[in-house]
Amino acid sequence: MRKMFSFLILFCVVVYGYQPTADHDSSAQIIYDINLINSNDDLFHVSVSVNGLTDENDIYNLPATAPGTYEVMDFGRFMKSIKAYDGDGNELNVEHISTNRWEIEDVNKLAKLVYDIEDSFDSDAPGISVDPMGGTGIDSAFVVLNTFGVLGFFEGLQSNPIKLKVDYKSDWTIGTALNKGDDGFYYAATYDRLADSPFLIGNLTNASTKVNDIDVDVYLYSPDTSVTAGKVMKMANEVLQAAGKFMGYSPTDHYDFLFCFMSPEDYERNNLQSAGALEHSNSSLFVFPSRGRLSNRMRDDMAHEFMHILTPLNLHSNIIEPYNFEVPTASEHIWLYEGVTEWESHILQLRAGLITPEEYLHTISQELNVNDHFNQNISLTEMSKEVYTEEGRHQFFNFYNRGAVTAAMLDIRLLELSNGTRGLREVLLDLLKKYGKNKPFMDDKFFDILVDLTYPQIEEFIDDYIRGTKSLPYVDYMEKLGYRYISKRVSEDKRPSLGIGLGLNDKNQFFVREASDELLNDGVKINDVILKILGQEVNMTSAHKILGQILSMQVGDTCEVVVERNGKQVDIPAILHQRMDKHIFEDMGELTEEQKFLRDAWLRNL
Ligand SMILES: [Zn+2]
Asked: Which of 159, 220, 311, 439 could disulfide-pair with 229, CB 3.0 to 4.6 Å?
């Protein structure tokens, strides 16, 4: 039941506005003020000072969605009250015309918009619950502020420059990657930039390091004072340094990791159903329940988020520019933004000697195991295009699995074709020289660009494994490096397995997302809703305990599972079985000269 806890979702920015391109109306000035000093009422108090607005700017929009979230969140539903005033303090008429839109009468006279908006964490507004790393939260000790959840933009002025002031308690600390001027205001070149810059505010700890020429900060809130920014930095520093070596240069000058660990009680009280990170250009925001200790998995997640500095921040397509906060459109290349980034986050650790080849091979093995549970008949490019559909959302997690293994295979193919001189890392660095933050590639031309920059055979690789759905060539390719593939064998782990993987459905019920052959034989079916296991109701809190009980039982023992199927309750006596390992790679020991040569190149940043 390891899957039970994989409700942790790593969210990442895939597409966002990168720089202002549209000519902005330079005469219109927009200054936001968020007052958090009197937020005991659990509301963000916002005022927006403007002048120079014209009739075309008469709509104030709050985002329906935001980069990387793949959800329609409708932040407009959290608005509590809104008023508009002219320069003399006379009220102007404001009409709420749709969930996220307000129309302002005589907008050319508008001087100030004043409104209160509640946080998404504990809101009881109808609609889907917003994932905390993409949401907003006000607590007595901290504030999670995704700017797009509180601040909107006037129609036609999304590309205008923005000033922002945040008033907060004097003993609080603020963590954000947004630039602050000497005048105390934060500055963003466009609304997209503002939306790309979350804030974490409160009783935070802070720690800094330098990676190449990048100033890296960790800002952290934790109710458990033994978990500090210093500890996170200590745990992650060598991985971040390895990431710096992999990059080989400094694509940006600063980067902030923002961590909000909430107490399990607060997690439950707010009914938060997920945790994870949302990635931005110069920062990433992590929201997790506090467990009193840091998981090593956090290092991998931090490496992943940090490597996004390369893609998509400095290597991305033209497709969404600026970002459409109302109706998002996907790029074809999430395999590049997420799959390649995930591959990087592990191989950079191998190449810096932080993990052994065996540990790296175990990662590939795990990725292949997860991939087995996803749709094999949809290509990576189709998965990208479908990302905003229900099916696409369901498949998204596989970018971190099949996408990452695809990148690993592409690396080996490139090393082979270049005679050990130029792998995927080196090709990416060449692409980064050619393109950059302000120079996107054309979305539909990227594969041609990649083939031109490499070898004709890469076109075949793309057609088979990225645009196509051929099963990945890991058996042959890993053998080129001197690793033997074993499809399945009895695990050395003798603890019993129920062989179940659970997911959460729209009603927040656990359902059977995966099941072993043995469990299917016992009568469990995929999509069954789980009511009880071992006589206990399954929920976020009980899951840990139930797993512990199963692990203390024996292979062959009966584990009662009660499910709901087609409105009927079904009792299933499932038999705990021996664990099997699948998709294993082993060192072949005696290597040929070719294998030795290629493995040596594979183990290094060339
Ligand atoms: Zn990512």
From this structure: 220
Buried b (16+ CB within 10 A) or exposed e, 96-134: eeeebbbebeebebbbbbebbbbbbbebeeeeebbbbbb
Q: What is the DSSP string of 73-131?
A: --GGGGEEEEEEEETTS-EE-EEEEETTEEEETTGGGEEEEEEEEE-STT---SSPPPP
What pTM does this model have?
0.85
Expressed in angstroms and rounded, the spacing between residue 568 Cα and the centre of ligand 1 is 40
String of DSSP letters for 382-445: HHHHTTTSHHHHHHGGGGGTHHHHHHHHHHHHHHHHTTSS--HHHHHHHHHHHSBTTBPBPGGG
Q: Which residues pair with 283 in a beta bridge?
A: 256
At 24 the three-state DSSP class reads coil
Nearest to 313 by CA among 422, 428, 145, 146: 428
User: Is residue 590 classed exposed, middle or buried when 0-12, 13-18 and 19+ CB atoms within 10 A define those classes?
Assistant: exposed
Cα 522 to averaged position of ligand 1 atoms, centre (Å): 38
Expressed in angstroms and rounded, the spacing between residue 342 Cα and the centre of ligand 1 is 7
From 350, 589, 347, 361, select the one nearest 474 (Cα to Cα). Answer: 361
Question: Which tens digits make up the pLDDT trace of 276-333?
Answer: 888 888 999 999 888 777 777 889 999 999 999 898 878 888 775 567 888 777 788 9
Q: Is the dihedral of CA 478, 480, 484, 487 positive or negative?
A: positive
Query: What tens digit of pLDDT does each residue of 337-385 get?
Result: 999 999 999 999 999 999 999 999 999 999 999 898 899 999 999 999 8
Q: For residue 468, what are the contacts with CB-CB under 8 A and spacing of at least 6?
A: 379
Task: Name residue 167's amino acid.
Answer: D
Distance from the alpha carbon of residue 538 to the mean position of ligand 1, in angstroms: 30
